[in-house]
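thought: user wants a sequence for this fold. calling inverse folding tool.
action: design(structure=
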């Protein structure tokens, strides 16, 4: 069947900012046919194209209706005036502004819709601006099954995501989507979110780490579901789709009362989400996770030349104004500007006042009359600059070393604000400076990082280790961070490192996977080098992280054992 202009206009009106491949798969047409038709609309001024890419998806041309195209589509689809048309389709100025601000998430939804379309006739996203979900792709070939999508961005607090999921769980059954798909930044948050869904009885909820493979593959097991009876189970996207067919009618999306005629060309030119490259967006994510990030550490993280760092920061600082530069060139630090805070808050659907109270560098006065920064993370950095720099140095140096070592790879890391592990009425169990996952040779090393500058005497060392002894004593650390997590303590001198070894040598409870090293040793031998003293056996010589494969964690006795030991 030949693709008509009316069908194409209806698809572009239903799915603004869809790319050619996604549109072809969703419509069930050949790529060449759709590309030829879109090129004709571009030549006539009915449609326009803008380049967009994310950290997870390659840059591609995304299509939208121009002002002329809005009038043409309204006439072709049988509307009396364009004003009526923009109330029904998500092409009004208000809708395009929402989609532009959340364009990275919109691209992920369109890619998910493409992956679902081969098994569901024309799975076009139905955007929801006020509900807890991000979009609701519906399938007309079923009796009303729906897939709802929700995501956790870096600016969104974990509690805010959980509140949205609770709201979905409490929906009336007639309004609740059949299946909920949740995208999160890391496997750590994936496991925590899946367990929350089980606790709040949000059934048929599947959580995946946002990546190109998870968004495009329908036959790979990326989607985690946690059940009380079977524990963690990984499923395919095709399995999640079949579950959506077993529930009631899909949510109805109401027309917006306020709908102005759009100015898409003007909007597209002023949007950072279209102007930034994927590498610049990665830098923005790093600065969001690590405010007041030193320029030297940023260069190590990216693994690029000084000139390339200057080029990227010139775009983010001078062109778009999303990042502030503090300090002189040689000692420059980078953090989010007010425009950058607003951008990441809109991008991740976070509350703007809460985002400002997290990252803003503006000065205010507390209830004691003392001057402080409005953003609590900036204020914490100002009080603990040495500690914050130690954590970012370690992570950036580790990224740099693994990049040069073909047998090693740093899969992901999270800052302390997203790494805290809490149980029992919100009581914090551990609060590491970072959490991550490293592959060193044949060893898989999930780790918690503690950069410690205050615990320098035996009493302080015991107090610092106590939360980790309690955490490992629960018997399920590998349940949070499989196969089981190591804790890496980094201290500022070899004398303090020796204090840790002497103190733990007389602690009968010190049988957990904790290692210690000092900054001078790490700078001399490298993080992947022979630098780490195992505190479960202080007399043991220093180890490489790649040698940890020789040890196993006994869940029965909560002790570390070398392979072959009884």
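)
observation: tool returned 566 residues.
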């Amino acid at each position: 069947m030949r693709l008509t202009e009316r069908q194409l206009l209806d698809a572009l009106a239903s799915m603004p900012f869809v790319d050619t491949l996604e549109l072809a798969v969703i419509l069930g047409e050949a790529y060449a046919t759709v590309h030829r038709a879109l090129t004709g609309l571009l030549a006539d001024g009915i449609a326009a194209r803008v380049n967009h890419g994310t950290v997870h998806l390659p840059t591609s041309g995304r299509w939208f209706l121009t002002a002329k195209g809005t009038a043409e589509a309204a006439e072709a689809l049988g509307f009396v005036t364009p004003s009526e048309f923009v109330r029904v389709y998500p092409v009004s100025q208000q809708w395009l502004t929402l989609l532009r601000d959340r364009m990275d998430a919109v691209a992920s939804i369109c890619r998910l819709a493409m992956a679902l379309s081969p098994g569901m006739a024309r799975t076009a996203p139905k955007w929801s601006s006020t509900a807890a979900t991000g979009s609701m792709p519906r399938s007309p070939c079923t009796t009303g099954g729906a897939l709802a999508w929700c995501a956790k961005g870096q600016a969104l607090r974990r509690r805010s995501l959980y509140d949205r999921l609770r709201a979905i769980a409490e929906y009336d059954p007639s309004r609740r989507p059949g299946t909920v798909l949740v995208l999160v930044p890391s496997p750590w948050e994936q496991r925590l979110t899946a367990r929350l869904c089980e606790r709040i009885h949000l059934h048929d909820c599947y959580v995946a780490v946002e990546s190109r493979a998870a968004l495009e593959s329908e036959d790979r097991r990326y989607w985690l579901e946690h059940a009380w009876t079977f524990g963690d189970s990984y499923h395919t996207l095709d399995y999640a789709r079949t579950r959506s067919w077993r529930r009631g009618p899909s949510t109805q999306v109401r027309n917006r009362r306020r709908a102005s005629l759009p100015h898409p060309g003007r909007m597209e030119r002023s949007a950072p989400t279209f102007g930034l490259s994927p590498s610049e967006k990665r830098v923005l994510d790093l600065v969001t996770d690590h405010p007041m990030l030193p320029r030297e550490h940023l260069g190590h993280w990216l693994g690029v030349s000084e000139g390339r760092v200057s080029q990227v920061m010139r775009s983010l600082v001078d062109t778009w104004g999303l990042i502030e530069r503090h300090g002189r060139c040689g000692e420059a630090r980078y953090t989010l500007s007010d425009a950058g805070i607003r951008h990441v808050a809109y991008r991740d659907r976070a509350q703007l006042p809460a985002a400002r109270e997290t990252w803003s560098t503006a000065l205010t006065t507390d209830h004691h009359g003392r001057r402080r920064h409005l953003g609590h993370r900036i204020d914490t950095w100002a009080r603990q600059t040495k500690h914050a720099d130690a954590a970012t140095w370690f992570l950036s140096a580790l990224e740099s070393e693994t990049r040069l070592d073909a047998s090693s790879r740093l899969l992901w890391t999270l800052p302390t604000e997203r790494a805290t592990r809490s149980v029992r009425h919100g009581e914090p169990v551990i609060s590491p400076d970072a959490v991550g996952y490293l592959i060193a040779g044949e060893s898989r090393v999930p780790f918690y990082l503690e950069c410690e500058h205050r615990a320098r005497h035996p009493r302080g060392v015991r107090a610092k280790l106590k939360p980790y002894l309690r955490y490992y004593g629960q018997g399920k650390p590998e349940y949070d961070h499989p196969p089981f997590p190591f804790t890496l303590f980094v201290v500022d001198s070899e004398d303090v490192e020796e204090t840790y070894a002497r103190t733990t040598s007389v602690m009968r409870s010190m049988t957990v996977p904790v290692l210690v090293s000092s900054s001078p040793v790490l700078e001399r031998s490298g993080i992947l080098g022979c630098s780490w003293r195992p505190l479960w056996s202080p007399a043991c010589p220093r180890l490489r992280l790649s040698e940890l494969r020789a040890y196993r964690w006994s869940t029965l006795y909560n002790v570390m054992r070398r392979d072959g030991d009884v």
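thought: summarizing for user.
answer: Here is the designed sequence. The mean pLDDT is 87.
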